[in-house]
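We were asked to recover a plausible sequence for a given structure. The inputs and outputs are reproduced exactly as logged, with field labels preserved.

PROBLEM: sequence recovery
POSITIONS: 342
GIVEN STRUCTURE:
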């Protein structure tokens, strides 16, 4: 099936009034995620970011579009590629940057680093390094929401690579059987680490094509179209809030850079990368907004504001001290101590 045909399967018809923030705000939020990623890359080159780091340049429309469809009280959860997801739910950029640099005041106390960005306060229940591990956790969040009966939903982001992991199938099956309010959003960036997903998967759409096996509709959307993501997630969330059960949404995108900070991504064909760069979501959305009459100057001002914010955040994070060594012993066990183990 061509991807054009696949996009026709998107359930955009019937979407009511747009939800969430106005359009330039979506632009601002995507830019914030991009500039934070670029600053992180730069700081990594300078040796300030320790451990592995996975950025989401190119994926911003998914994090921002989905977050724009959520309410306070809804949950989201994701993979190690989670910086943009936390920021999109409203996490403080400086706390995120301090975490990446392992500094005091980091969003996890400077002890978790890039792969564990979490902000429960903002409804972002964490980034998980084990591929597929968080999908059953999303079911737990959805089950709690169902028991509470508060109409809240969970959005679970995962990569195309997770669809070949048993936990994906177990979680989707359970969510479908129990009609949990969980939206499984696959960020299909065509690669799992250094392997093209198409080389190891027998169907074109690794998430959507598996959905019918669990009684769910196969939904494929353009993951570089921030409004399409927002509207699809809003529509599926409103069904789930009413007891309509889970959905799988496959959002097709492209990872503009390597799998991790350390990956130069030389294994990808040049024409493919060129296509990915041409279709990236931020420049594309700017063209959409300008086409609707938004002044270029207004968008330039948003860019300048975001650039200034990220530069200031990076500078303050760099100057911040590391966490107190004694904090290595806090936040480890739910009862606040590790003493009972020794
Ligand atoms: C269970 C498990 N197997 C292998 C790995 C090593 N690994 C880390 S990321 C990754 C690729 C995942 O690809 P995908 O799910 O498409 O997410 P993306 O990195 O493209 O966002 C692999 C295999 C892991 N972390 N966990
Ligand atoms: Mg992938």
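RECOVERED SEQUENCE:
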């Amino acid at each position: 099936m061509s991807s054009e045909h696949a996009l026709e399967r998107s359930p955009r018809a019937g979407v009511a009034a747009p939800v969430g923030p106005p359009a330039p705000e979506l632009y601002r939020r995507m830019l914030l995620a991009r500039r934070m990623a670029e600053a992180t890359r730069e700081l990594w080159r300078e040796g300030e970011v320790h451990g592995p780091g996975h950025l989401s340049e190119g994926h911003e429309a998914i994090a921002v579009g989905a977050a724009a469809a959520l309410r306070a009280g809804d949950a989201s959860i994701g993979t190690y590629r989670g910086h943009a997801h936390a920021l999109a739910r409203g996490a403080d950029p400086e706390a995120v940057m301090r975490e990446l640099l392992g500094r005091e005041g980091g969003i996890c106390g400077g002890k978790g680093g890039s792969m564990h960005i979490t902000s429960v306060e903002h409804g972002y229940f964490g980034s998980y390094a084990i591929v597929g591990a968080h999908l059953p956790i999303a079911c737990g969040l959805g089950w709690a929401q169902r028991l509470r009966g508060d109409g809240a939903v969970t959005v679970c982001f995962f990569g195309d690579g997770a669809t070949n992991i048993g936990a994906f199938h177990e979680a989707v099956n359970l969510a479908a059987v129990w009609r949990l309010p969980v939206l499984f959003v696959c960020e299909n960036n065509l690669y799992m680490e250094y392997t093209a997903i198409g080389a190891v998967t027998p169907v074109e759409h690794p998430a959507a094509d598996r959905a019918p096996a669990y009684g769910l509709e196969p939904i494929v959307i353009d993951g570089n179209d921030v409004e399409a993501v927002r509207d699809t997630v809003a529509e599926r969330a409103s069904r789930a809030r009413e007891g309509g059960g889970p959905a799988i949404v496959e959002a097709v995108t492209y990872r503009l850079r390597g799998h991790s900070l350390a990956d130069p991504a030389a294994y990808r064909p040049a024409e493919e990368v060129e296509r990915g760069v041409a279709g990236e979501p931020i420049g594309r959305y700017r063209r959409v907004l300008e086409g609707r009459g938004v002044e270029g100057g207004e968008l330039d001002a948003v860019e300048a504001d975001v650039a200034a914010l990220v530069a200031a955040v990076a500078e303050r994070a760099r100057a911040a001290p590391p966490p107190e060594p004694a904090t290595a012993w806090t936040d480890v066990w739910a009862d606040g101590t590790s003493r009972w183990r020794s």
